[in-house]
Amino acid sequence: MSEDALRLGIIVGSTREGRFAATVAGWFADVAQQHPELVVDVIDLAELGLPAVHPAAATPELREYAARLAAADAFVVVTPEYNHGYPASLKFAIDSAHVQWQTKPVGFVSYGGISGGLRAVEQLRQVFAELHAVTVRDSVSFHDAHGRFDETGNPKDSTGPAAAAKTMLDQIVWWARAAAEARIRRPYR
């Protein structure tokens, strides 16, 4: 890995027991780790021990989470669609930070029923715009996700999702490098 590699935080947004998120995120993390310009940090919300209630002061878990976000140059959010939206755990995690998101690109890998999680992604684009993050246009989505993966955790269609992931990751790298250069020339805000 080169010295100028970018740090990609992959946020695993579901915390439900029996979730399918680990399968989707595991596949995507493997794909992202193969990108020559990226170093990957998988930030699984189910493993962080974030509080269930917004505390008045940051807990050690929240401080560690914020530090991992601050260290990232870009993000990909892996999200299911629950009831036409994204999980409450993901909203809590997003709202638990602020400046750590600013001027960084965000991509999405979504999954769900017939919509493939795209309604959740559209809502997340609005949230990240409010946080001064830049969402990339292309994403990866899996409709009827449980039937799209084989028993080894890989998509049954080995070319379509990989091509979509490459397109999105290339966009993220471009935006992350452009934003980093811009921050050097002129700090944001």
TL;DR of this structure?
The chain has helices at residues 21-33, 45-48, 60-71, 88-95, 118-130, 160-185, and strands at residues 6-12, 38-44, 74-80, 105-112, 134-135, 140-143. The chain has 189 residues and is α/β, with parallel strands linked by helices. The chain has a single domain (6-185), classed as Flavodoxin domain (Rossmann fold, 3-Layer(aba) Sandwich).
CATH architecture title: 3-Layer(aba) Sandwich
**How big a fraction of the residues is strand?**
15-25%
Radius of gyration: 16 Å
CATH topology: Rossmann fold
Average of pLDDT: 95
* Number of contiguous helices: 6
Specify the biggest β-sheet: 6 strands, parallel
CATH H level: which superfamily?
Flavodoxin domain
Overall tally of domains: 1
Order of helices and strands, N to C? Answer: EHEHHEHEHEEH
**CATH class term:** Alpha Beta
Task: Give the helices and strands, then pairings.
Blueprint: E1 6-12, H1 21-33, E2 38-44, H2 45-48, H3 60-71, E3 74-80, H4 88-95, E4 105-112, H5 118-130, E5 134-135, E6 140-143, H6 160-185
Parallel strand pairs: 1-2, 1-3, 3-4, 4-5, 4-6
Q: Explain this structure to me?
A:
- The chain has 189 residues and is of the alpha/beta class.
- It has a single domain (6-185), classed as Rossmann fold (3-Layer(aba) Sandwich), CATH 3.40.50.360.
- It has six helices and six strands, in the order βαβααβαβαββα.
- The chain has helices spanning 21-33, 45-48, 60-71, 88-95, 118-130, 160-185, and strands at residues 6-12, 38-44, 74-80, 105-112, 134-135, 140-143.
- Helix 1 links the parallel strand 1 (6-12) and strand 2 (38-44).
- The longest helix is centred in the C-terminal third of the chain and has 26 residues, at 160-185.
